[in-house]
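Here is one chain, start to finish.
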Amino acid sequence: MIILDGKKTSNDLKEEIAAEVVKRKAEGKKTPHLAAILVGTDGASMTYVNSKVKACEKVGFNSTLIDLPEETTEEQLLHEIAELNNDKDIDGFIVQLPLPNHIDEQKVLMAIDPDKDVDGFHPVNVGKMTLDLPTFLPATPFGILELLKRYKVETSGKNVVVIGRSHIVGRPMSILMSQKREAGDATVTLTHSRTKNLSEITQKADIIVAALGKAEFLTGDMVKEGVTVIDVGITRVKDETKKRGYRLAGDVDFDSVAPKSEFITPVPGGVGPMTIAMLLKNTLLACEKVD
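Its structure:
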């Protein structure tokens, strides 16, 4: 069993990006600049955005954090987005999700300039991804592809099962892995909450991507020997034995699935760190576009 170490791989990627930034500066080219908009005080969102800012510092990017109060109106947020769209110094930016209930998430995502949409969520970029045209790939699926590639996990002709159909992970993952690409050329089955006989489907899978947000859902009896398992979920589970009163669990019951796996991602330290690294990669690509 080989652990797909997202922490190590993301650090390797950051070092490669940092070297690219040093080279750009030496050539008198622009320093990549990533901005993030955070609305409200959601704990997980704040942690995530702060780790993005730290990652920017680590690779030598410029970064801007626009911190808005919970009561920010949709109109005010759209104004901030328009400002970033028109700011030539900003190469890419993200609006941290989820947004407060009074703001239309779809309207906000549509307002982002597709050329600065380093999260890869704008319909223009989703369309390009579906048609296999050059574009920003959503950071989490992009990170999974990179992990599979760097660990030389064979995907061509393999039977891949994706659990979860979200626009952020499940659906794009199913499209990308079916395409002609490294870490692609697979036969993909997309499953979800209405799928019948899910265990029968997962037991035949060579590779499983679990992205449904349900702690320890995938168990050892649902997988075959030699499977590759990518765990995208991260949930806080109450645990009185821990100092914080909880532990972090993925969508996979690691203890029962790992012994049957050829490759598996841990939680934490698997897919999570890769997401931030690929966001940096997308920002570098956005900066290179305007050279």
